[in-house]
Specification:
single chain; alpha+beta; 2 domains; 5-stranded antiparallel beta sheet; two-stranded antiparallel ribbon; 45% helix; 19% strand; flat; binds zinc ion
Length: 244
């Protein structure tokens, strides 16, 4: 029985704690003898979202080599998974807030949805999204994504720059950075995932952080205004007690 763990619902985006009665993890060994990968089976993770407004099912399925240990079938830890698929919801994309421009959100969701099916197309969308972020947030517009990233170096904090720069150097992403963002380049799912992760980080570090900061500042300003008003109306309010 799995213990309680932190979980973010891929349907509603709510951060929650998942306990044993909300999750079912099971491995089914295929009774077909040994394949070229050895014995194989299917491991599924089914989770029900505890948010009553959502109450959705999230289902992840892995096909992987397994072995018999102490009378039951177990995944072999250091052997690669043959197939890992998120069945429900189909896209692994996190729900993004409305204040992120719609075009960027759409590119991101689509990239997440097709990542396993077509890493090339997913990476192309993620690169276009990265360029869209740079153009929208920093108002930098150059012909090549490579030049736009270079122009960022002095404008952003070091850790964010390092993250962008690291992805820029990854295999084929890096090799084709100088190309037009709409050109489809050969890429594997892991590289596409790194690009999508970077887009998620930038959404959080830029748009979400800016929104939170603006909200906090607006709250402080409103509080200051209230206090000011209370102070200026105090002598008058004493006489009107009980008026309404
Ligand atoms: Zn949910």
């Amino acid at each position: 029985m799995p213990t309680a763990r932190n979980w973010t619902c891929p349907h509603c985006g709510r951060h929650t704690t998942i306990t044993g009665n909300l999750v079912d993890v099971a491995l089914h060994h295929f009774e077909i003898g040994e394949t070229r990968h050895g014995h194989v089976g299917m491991l599924w993770h089914a989770t029900r979202c505890p948010n009553p407004e959502c109450n959705e099912l999230a289902l992840v399925v892995n096909v992987l080599p397994c072995e018999r240990q102490s009378g039951s079938w177990q995944p072999i830890r250091d052997r690669p998974t043959l197939k890992a698929t998120r069945l429900l919801p189909e896209s692994a994309g996190k729900l993004q807030p409305d204040y992120i421009p719609q075009q960027l959100r759409e590119d991101y969701y689509e990239a997440c949805r097709i990542r396993d099916l077509s890493p090339k197309a997913a990476a192309t969308l993620a690169r276009r999204c990265l360029q869209g972020i740079i153009r929208d947030f920093w108002k930098i517009k150059k012909r090549r994504l490579l030049d736009e990233i270079a122009a960022l170096k002095d404008k952003i904090d070091y850790s964010l720059w390092t993250a962008i720069d690291a992805v820029r150097k990854v295999g084929n992403i890096g090799a084709h950075m100088e190309e037009d963002v709409n050109k489809i380049v050969s890429i594997d799912p892991e590289e596409a995932t790194k690009l999508i992760d970077l887009v998620e980080i930038l959404f959080d570090e830029l748009y979400v952080a800016r929104d939170q900061r603006n909200r906090r500042l607006a709250e402080l300003a409103a509080l200051g205004e209230r206090k000011q008003q209370e102070r200026s109306t105090k002598p008058k309010t004493r006489k009107t007690i009980g008026a309404s």
